[in-house]
Design goal:
This protein is an all-alpha fold. The protein is built from 18 helices and no strands.
Amino acid sequence: MNPTLSNARNPSDALPRALWALMVGNFVIGTGVMVVPGTLNDISTSLGVSIPQAGQLITAAAILMGLGAPAFATLVAGWDRRRLLTLSLIWYGLLTGICALAPNYGTLLPLRVLAVISPAIFTPQAAACVGLLVPPAQRGRAITFVFLGWSVASVMGMPLSAWIGTELGWRWAFGLVAVMSLASAAWIWRDMPNGIKPAALSRQAWGQTLGSPALMMAVGVTLLSAFGQFTLFSYFAPYFLQTLGLGGGGLSLLFLWFGAFGLAGNVGLTRVIDRVGAGRAVLFMLSAIMLSLALWPLGRHGLWQQALVLVPWALGCFAVNSAQQARLVHLSPVLAPATVALNTSAMYGGQALGAALGGVMIAQGQMLRLHEVGLVVLLLAMSLSLWAERAQKRS
């Protein structure tokens, strides 16, 4: 009997327990990635650096994650995923804990870069495992379920990090991520079956992936989507402090509001994606984010106005990443290890570009125009997504 399918024999079966462990692992990974945006104000103040300089922690980490995802996908091809995912979370916990003890910014930056080796490995490899844990009819639902962890991180992890950063300091927020990482590693070790080894990424597989217009345009959608969003998303904390005077509890509540709708969007996506198709789902989510950015200036008139403007963005923010992962796996299940790695690379690469551009604009006094750039880039993402759908139909 194939051990990878022993817990999922037909489409009506419940999802395997291992997917819950992977989902929680993504929650921890997502919380760790978003702990810097959530505590950016305190990092800037306590370490005596400017907001754009503190934002380089996001940019540098995203560059490593973006470049590392495809590289590590090749290096770890033969590893048993139970051991690989467990070790990556242990590394995350240890390095994030050491980051919390960094005496200055110059020490924190390289430590942070080393810590995010784990997201470069965990997120794509968790997604690549899904096809070996469930039958094809459950694949879309299973992938979006695993990536639900990122939405849960936005509901719980980012607001909690922001609150802890304000009340106790950013070091305590980093320490919380470290503890959760080690606990999640134990869960993965307990529930992930042995023998899960996606096919090795050969030169031929990479050649087929890079040579497919439909696949590469779909990856490009992820790059542009993350780029457009993170131009502003990276600097939510200083933006809301400047425009609404929010800090501490108020900032945490706004992050919680955003995260709750982000979770709702991803949960809703899991229910409909196999019916409407991943391509259509991506277009809907991008449209929702663009609506928020188009209405963004209205949020400066008050807290409730800002909260309402955030709703469409939140609904699409994390769901669009889940839909993109499902889209790529559906386009070519055989090439999933390569496409998921590239998609993760594109997601983190877009974050790096957005954080870098946003930092440059803030340094030039253009914080209030970040949404304009994001809107233009997301319009390009939507155009490329439509083009990718046409390329898929022609292939």
